[in-house]
Automatic annotation (TrEMBL):
GO terms for molecular function: glyoxylate reductase (NADPH) activity; hydroxypyruvate reductase [NAD(P)H] activity; NAD binding; phosphoglycerate dehydrogenase activity. Pfam families: 2-Hacid_dh, 2-Hacid_dh_C. The keyword Disulfide bond does not apply. The lineage of its organism: Bacteria, Bacillati, Actinomycetota, Actinomycetes, Pseudonocardiales. This is D-3-phosphoglycerate dehydrogenase. Its EC number is 1.1.1.95. SUPFAM superfamilies: Formate/glycerate dehydrogenase catalytic domain-like, NAD(P)-binding Rossmann-fold domains. Keywords: Oxidoreductase. Residues 49-320 form the D-isomer specific 2-hydroxyacid dehydrogenase catalytic domain. Residues 121-289 form the D-isomer specific 2-hydroxyacid dehydrogenase NAD-binding domain.
């Protein structure tokens, strides 16, 4: 399907794009009778509502700066469609969208290979202490030579076994001793399904790739970190609110954890008073795990195809709620 043969079925043809996509490219996705409005997602809730009033289609903010709450959803055209150009959709009030007939879709799976690559890179760096040894040498120090564990001896636990969890398991199964996982759903896979408690108690390296939901917010706190084996490592490339950052900093400072790698934070950008900044064993990265050229190209394809589907009367793919 392309813009040339699109048949707009709705009377209202306003598409509001909150992402910093190239306007000329997005304009080219639609026939001329569709109005495209590029909207700055940082203008504040009231101005955002004013700019998107009557929109049939909203392309959300890939940088998660706009909160699409019930007030925002209320100004959209009846039966509107929101395409979130990311996997996570925790900035959208999905229950209200369901109740009010707004369809929401995400871009499931577009960046799972990219995130899994980042997790593997973080794991290698953590296991060999590359990040903190580099930092110490730059400060004129000569780091200690405490020996590392080889990857082939490690048990890696995956909390969250969706697209990203699967992609991590695919990469790690050939190179570590054991891959365990816990998820709401059991999958057909070589990795071993265990309870959340068992993942915590057995993981030399715990990798968390969960969505932020009421059930996962704060899921990994002091108690859960204490259940990890002495000297364990933690990786989080899912959502910041899932891991309690103060509890993590405390566990690393106390030496119970040997280190951690975080790509996501409860508040982004990370605040200068974050306790994590004082922990040199914690590798910090600015929410770039999924950000590769390949994933970004795939994302534009997913968004274009889905919005074109909706404007031509087809149901979208990757629906997270449905009004139809
Ligand atoms: N850092 C990044 O750049 C980046 C990129 C992509 C995704 N993410 C985040 O990572 C999350 C996971 O990505 P994905 O592509 O694997 O998503 P996904 O939807 O394919 O998988 C999520 C998995 O989490 C499971 N789950 C949900 N709640 C759970 C709970 N309470 N306990 C156990 N399992 C639970 C689901 O059953 C599902 O299998 C996304 O929601 C997103 O927020 C971050
Ligand atoms: O940088 C990106 O591609 C997005 O912020 C990733 O969003 P996600 O974590 O929700 O996929």
């Amino acid at each position: 399907m392309n813009a040339d043969n699109a048949q707009i079925t709705s009377d209202n043809r306003l598409v509001c794009c909150l992402s910093p996509f190239d306007e000329t490219e997005v304009r080219g996705w639609f026939p001329p009778d569709v109005t495209l409005r590029m909207v700055d997602p940082t203008i504040g809730p009231r101005d955002l509502q004013a700019a998107c009033t009557g929109a049939t289609v909203v392309i959300g903010d890939l940088l998660h700066r706009a909160v699409l709450d019930r007030h925002f959803l209320a100004v959209l055209a009846p039966g509107a469609f929101v395409q979130q150009p990311s996997v996570g959709y925790d900035t959208i009030d999905v229950p209200t969208a369901s109740q009010t007939g707004v369809t929401v879709a995400n871009a499931a799976g577009y960046n799972s290979d990219a995130v899994a690559d980042w997790v593997v890179a973080a794991l290698y760096s953590l296991v060999r202490g590359l990040h903190w040894r580099d930092a110490q040498i730059r400060k004129g120090q000569w780091p200690d030579h405490s020996p590392a564990r080889e990857l082939s001896t490690l048990t890696v636990g995956l909390l969250g076994f969706g697209n990203v969890g699967h992609a991590i398991a695919q990469r790690l199964t050939p190179i570590v001793d054991t891959v365990l996982y816990h998820d709401l759903r059991k999958a057909e896979t070589a990795a071993a399904y265990v309870s959340q408690q068992e993942v915590l108690e057995r993981s030399d390296v715990l990798s968390v790739q969960l969505p932020l939901t009421p059930a996962t917010r704060g899921l990994i706190g002091a108690d859960e970190l204490n259940r990890l084996p002495e000297g364990a490592l933690l990786i989080n490339a899912g959502r910041g609110g899932v891991v309690d950052e103060q509890a993590l900093a405390d566990a690393v400072t106390a030496g119970h954890l040997a280190g951690a790698a975080l790509d996501v934070f409860a508040d982004e950008p990370l605040k200068q008073d974050s306790p994590l900044l004082a922990c040199d064993r914690v590798l910090l990265s600015p929410h770039i795990a999924g950000d590769t050229v390949t994933a970004n190209d795939r994302l534009l394809d997913v968004v274009r195809e889905n919005v074109q589907r909706v404007l031509t009367g087809w149901p979208p793919e990757h629906m997270v709620t449905s009004s139809r």
